[in-house]
UniProtKB/TrEMBL annotation:
Residues 8-76 form the HTH gntR-type domain. The keyword Calcium does not apply. PANTHER family: MANNOSYL-D-GLYCERATE TRANSPORT/METABOLISM SYSTEM REPRESSOR MNGR-RELATED, MANNOSYL-D-GLYCERATE TRANSPORT_METABOLISM SYSTEM REPRESSOR MNGR-RELATED. This is HTH gntR-type domain-containing protein.
Length: 241
């Protein structure tokens, strides 16, 4: 297992190691994974941790598990619809950048509290960042996570990590899914200033709510995208592609 930041849950490290082997072709569709006992011995972790890691891979559609038979590398799903929210409008990742604007501990306002199913005033960590493509600002994002005293925060993770992954790393809880809501809005003055645009022009509002078990909300992202500079992509592809 690769050496990673100590705050990254061990099951994440296991899942990422196995995912790399699958995507690199070391493990091919139909191949059986080692048993939970074998993986636990190989990585020096408990069976429960192994199960959590395998569960992440199953959620991504990379493996299938069968009671009494074990886990196998899944065959590519060519009919899966993928909404590309992964940093987000540039085909060349070198063109993409993110600027962290602020990190604050805040009291949850009514709207955010309602989405996260918590009491208004509950402590949250708010991350505010600016997304840029070719050096031009294209979106402003606010991320809200539960406040955990002593939880380490790494700027690179905040700036670049996929939101469901960032939530799981912060909370140490396996994410079960996320709900994305896209709507048309107009830029407010504060957002327009950051995006170097005129107030009132059309924009996209993308809300991403990440869930844990039993549909418990774990984190909320609200992103305001410049309507003329930013696009979202939906496509069908194999996860091996």
């Amino acid at each position: 297992m690769k050496t990673r930041e100590s705050f990254v849950p061990v099951y994440f490290q296991l899942a990422e190691d196995l995912k790399e082997k699958i995507l690199a072709g070391e493990l091919k569709p139909g191949d059986a994974l080692p048993s939970e006992t074998q993986l636990g011995e190989q990585y020096g972790i408990s069976k429960m941790t192994v199960r959590n890691g395998l569960r992440l891979l199953a959620q991504e559609g990379l493996i299938e598990s069968f009671r009494g038979k074990g886990s196998f590398v899944a065959h590519p799903n060519l009919s899966e619809l993928i909404l590309n929210l992964a940093e987000h409008g540039s085909e060349n990742p070198q063109d993409y950048d993110s600027k962290l604007l602020a990190i604050n501990v805040i009291a949850a306002e009514d709207g955010v509290a309602l989405r996260l199913q918590i009491k208004p005033g509950t402590k949250l960590i708010q991350f505010r960042r600016l997304l840029l493509i070719d050096g031009e600002p294209v979106a402003v994002e606010n991320r809200y996570l539960t406040y955990q005293r002593g939880q380490p925060l790494v700027e690179q993770e905040i700036k670049y990590a996929d939101f469901p992954e960032a939530v799981a790393r912060h909370t140490g809880i396996i994410t079960e899914g996320n709900q994305v809501t896209i709507s048309a809005v107009s830029l407010h003055q504060a957002e327009a200033d950051l995006l170097e645009a005129s107030s009132g022009i059309p924009a996209l509002k993308v809300e991403q709510l990440v869930y844990g078990r039993q549909n418990t909300p774990l984190g909320l992202s609200i992103m305001i995208c410049h309507g003329e500079k930013y696009h979202l992509i939906a496509s069908t592809r194999s996860f091996f592609g």
